[in-house]
């Protein structure tokens, strides 16, 4: 067994070394991982902006990288060491520290006194788990993250052995199986740098949380424990004996409620490694049955005492104990697995999560998931390292940027991701995938935002992105005449204004919300009348073409299945060209993604997207042999391009629009259509010199004249370098993180490398260094660094900076 372990370790080391993987010192943490001292408070942290509704999320900066697969539910442990953020109910955010969910460590050097410490720089209220030694010293080590991995590097001087915890879920590129698993892997890297043997033991305590994720509330105060029970188990595996605790509950038949299922905590016994357990204890009491034996010798009592809860919370724990000889190193795996196969919508419709295709739908396979995770932990870890290495080790690009590329990926799993099929559907039904705009605006696959935020999906999980677009394709010819309140217009007019939910030919704003019937009832957004938006149809066309191009121009069937919807979407847009100049006109309300920013007449943003969509439609028609459509779009593009230059180019930048009060302002995102054209090889929509002049104008004004040039690109700026202040429009004076990245991407494409990276660095500076928005990157923040809409979808556009090549000279 030991020889096999050594051989495996050597092969994994060679795999990482051959990939050129750069680690920091001897702790196995990549150099580009983002770091923060464990538990260190942040001075002058950002908060949510004044005036937002009370339910808008602001949980503070104690956050960390999440674990959990796509559509499986997620949770995270903050850099302080507490498990507090829970996204286990579909589309619902809960933030509440569960103190009994915790790691602790025991160490004893030969001849020395034992030391036992909870690995959290925090403590519960007086009375709960009062026998435990809380408050790990702030700054005694570092937290680091390069999603999907994160690490705790413990360097407390009372611990003789050096221990680093590596934690992750198998979020793997181009992988549509393991990336969906409901499991968290914890690999403990322990080394004895002393000249005497050191005994180390790691404790994992966990609460039976079945029945806790029933409601849409932001905490778990309404949880129910009745019927819960725990059971210790042992199973022989090829890698060793799996020992752990299964947390279950009373039920008749298979699991059919989303709050029901199983949890498992487990590890492997092998020569020199002992796993002990406490099947059940009361986590609301002092916890002495856990701490007394663990603090004495690093082992639990192997108590199988168990009962069924009549309302009290039940805890369980395992401890993994081993001895390191001087100079010896070991890697010890532990896992938390859960099998909660059902996810429910507000309408009552139930879905099976994607991972059930591999483990069944009964909700009784948590031990199977744990067993596979323990067997695969080393190979999964190496696969993540190999995936990340080309970017992490690219010294031609800034280290902060290389780390941010991966850390922004957290939103794909943690942003309320949904992946599965309705319970009453045929098991062969293709699974639906989506993730939310954010928890404050809980719309699935919000298209105007997904246009930016889907970049890493098409790069690493292209089938998921195409699946989302197929859902939008299906909706284009559909109509829903339900009457909905148009909120913005009603506020402007002072009386109720209504619109229909969705018109035929319109690409919907979203695929629904968790509280209603997502993926069945689309276009729930009622702030604006999105039937008249000028960017949704064009963005849909561009995204379809992008997915075809960026997956090698091979999936002709994808284009063919989308073509009729693309043409219908483009035809719908023609009605807004009322003066015959070839450009649709904005209608004097915020009829695009900047949904508080009024646009009237032809505009740089919407008209530029129209130009790009015409070119994408022309190229699609050419590929598919639709010659009449190809000729039509070619002629219309020539006409529209001439009008665009004549009406919007002022010699320095493209005007915001031609008729609103903002018409002569500088918009950071004015070349959005050109960004997509450059990304997909559609060529120059406007002359190259005009692009460069406009980008330099944006850099000089929107970037360098805002926040000392250290905060990214503000959305709007006057030509005399001042912020725009208009009642009812906060967006014009906000930095949008995702659009800043898209602007930076176009700068890189056009050869403005220094400007592009500096523009993007402003977002990194605010999010990761100054204001504490790590793993909750917001949509927007103001010059004071206060934010709106955390955990947002659009910042995933940072990957666009890796998906662009400078034009050929």
Explain the overall architecture.
The structure is a single chain. By secondary structure, the chain is of the alpha+beta class. 29% of the residues lie in helices and 21% in strands. Strands 3-10-11-12-13-20-17-16-15 form a 9-stranded antiparallel beta sheet. It starts with a helix and ends in a 21-residue tail after the last strand.
Mean pLDDT, nearest integer?
A: 95
Note the gap between the termini: 59 Å
Radius of gyration: 27 Å
Which structural class best describes the helix and strand composition?
alpha+beta
Q: What is the spatial order of strands in the main beta sheet?
A: 3-10-11-12-13-20-17-16-15
Strand residue content: 15-25%
What sort of overall outline do the alpha carbons produce when their principal axes are compared?
globular
Stretches where pLDDT is under 50 for at least 5 consecutive residues are: 1-21
Helix content class: 25-40%
**Number of continuous helical runs:** 18
The number of distinct β-strands equals 33
